[in-house]
Write a structure and sequence with these properties.
three-stranded antiparallel beta sheet, 3 strands, mainly alpha
Amino acid sequence: MSVLHDAVRSVYSNAVIIFGNDVDSLKVLDNSENEIEIDAAAVTNAIPAAQEKRDALLQSIQTTKQSALDKLAKLGLTEDEINALIG
């Protein structure tokens, strides 16, 4: 899912299916597959907040992963053993 699609969903909570990779080519459908007419400016304005939300989620995932790795190391696992566990 792209940041653009996240922005669409933040503006149109009934959006279920989203086609297109830029604001000008978007086609958005609801759960009955009815097309939703979008306001391109509203979607464009929602992009920065959607990007911030995505960045925060990715940072949280990275922080949680590092915390888990640190805990495994504190239990005495070697780097090779930890890598074997996480692939």
